[in-house]
Write a structure and sequence with these properties.
The protein is of the alpha/beta class. It contains eleven helices and nine strands. Helices cover 44% and strands 21% of the residues. The longest helix has 17 residues.
């Protein structure tokens, strides 16, 4: 299952018999998820230049899923007693696919604050308890990608000869005064500007308090979302490319902008 993706470095973890459920009841979901995830590709320029809003790589993955019949959906659960409504709750999910044997729900958390994992897992738990979904899937940055980000940004800095603030300005990157002071402090500590900028950039945009594999896996092992069957998917470093031109536009925005 997912052998081709695993060979590319994708991470998978299954909880509450999700692997057996997926294999027996949702073989088509395996094929469709493989097709969508296998298309994921993010040029390094998009990682560096993404401003506010959702990253383009995430948007492309969303389009691939939507094209395969996984649209956004809103679940409304209403409680009634003897025909009298006692209120309702609603849950919006990024991608939902109805199959003959049930419904699979999927959320993508590329780079949000990590409490978004709690929201997703609790939503899946409630929807599963109400019989609305059979299992939930969460896609996020894998541990290999998270650990490689500084090296990837450093490679970009070396290839683009990013040797100072002027070099960043030439790329239409506009670090704040706080960020510039951080670069200078690091350089005074005896490292190159490329290393100072890449390290500071990753800490600012992809820090430990954002959504990535270890934060999600920790919640899984603490039982968050249990007993909903769950599939965790970690995106690998291999999805980051150099010299690829997908939806890349001119790099704009300051380093304080959120990736989304």
């Amino acid at each position: 299952m997912f052998d081709a993706l695993i060979a590319r470095g994708f991470q998978f973890e299954f909880a509450s018999h999700a692997k057996a459920i997926l294999t027996v009841d949702f073989p088509d979901a395996i094929d469709e998820l493989t097709m969508a995830l296998d298309q994921v590709s993010i040029p390094i320029e998009e990682i560096i230049g993404s401003g506010g809003g959702e990253a383009k790589g995430t948007q492309r993955l969303r389009r691939a899923l939507a094209d395969l019949g996984w649209p956004k959906a809103k679940f409304v659960v209403e409680k009634t007693v003897n025909g009298r409504s006692l209120g309702s709750t609603s849950h919006e999910v990024d991608h939902v696919r109805a199959f003959e044997k049930g419904v699979v729900a999927l959320e993508i958390e590329w780079n949000n604050k990590d409490p978004f994992f709690d929201r997703d897992l609790e939503n899946f738990k409630r929807l599963h308890a109400d019989g609305a979904i059979s299992l939930g899937v969460i896609v996020t940055r894998g541990s290999g990608l998270q650990d490689s980000l500084t090296a990837l940004i450093r490679r970009f800095a070396d290839e683009r000869s990013v040797t100072g603030i002027e070099s960043l300005s030439a790329l239409s990157l506009n670090p704040t005064k706080r960020q510039q002071a951080d670069y200078e402090r690091r350089v005074r500590g005896g490292i190159t500007f490329q290393e100072a900028w890449s390290t500071s950039f990753v800490q600012d945009k992809f820090g430990q308090a954002t959504t990535h594999w270890r934060k999600l896996d920790d919640r899984l092992h603490r039982g968050v979302g249990n007993p909903c069957p769950l599939i965790l998917v970690g995106l690998p470093a291999s999805i980051v490319t150099f010299g690829e031109d997908l939806d890349v536009e001119r790099i704009v925005g300051g380093d304080d902008a959120a990736i989304g």
